[in-house]
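Journal club prep — side note

Before the paper discussion, L.F. wants everyone to see what a predicted structure for a comparable chain looks like in token form. Sequence:
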Amino acid sequence: MSVSLGPYSSWALTTVSFLTIVGLYMLFTGSGEQFNVGKLLQETSPYAWALTGMGLCIGLSVTGAAWGIFITGSALLGGAVKTPRIQSRNLISIIFCEVVAIYGVIMAIVYSAKLSDVPAERLYSTSNFFTGHAIFWGGLTVGICNLLCGLSVGVTGSSAALADAQNPELFVKVLVVEIFGSVLGLFGLIVGLLTTGKAADFR
């Protein structure tokens, strides 16, 4: 009897094997000190950290919104073939998914206000490093929260459409659950604001 570990097991095994081979090669050739996380954190430009965080903020948020719209939209269109009346009021699920992407865009605009032109000799200061890392981790937090929020709203919106097709009285009850799922993205936005609240502008 064989046990399937899923489609991602081969990718995980390949990644771990590759990292193990590279690590052993560096260890036995005397270049193990090149694997230095502290050096990476110190020598990478604060601008790079900040811009990567902003990119992750928008990218993951839009991915979550698109994924949620895909899940909800396919169920909505399938249910509307049999019960056309559900197509109008169930569009609110699509709106909830789209709001997730808007959260990411808003936070990226807020983060971009902290960017300014800094001379090269003053770029690697403690304040700029703090701001760069704060924007990176804030953007990553917002992006992951919005990604999961989009999936949550998409699955719940799909259930709302199918439940409404069977019994119209269930729509409002499932919609309440969907609203609570949508609030998760707002929590991520608040955490992203708190993360960069004390970060000064680049100077």
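L.F.'s comment for the group: The helical segments are 9-28, 37-43, 46-82, 86-89, 91-112, 120-123, 126-166, 170-195. Keep this in mind when we get to the figures.
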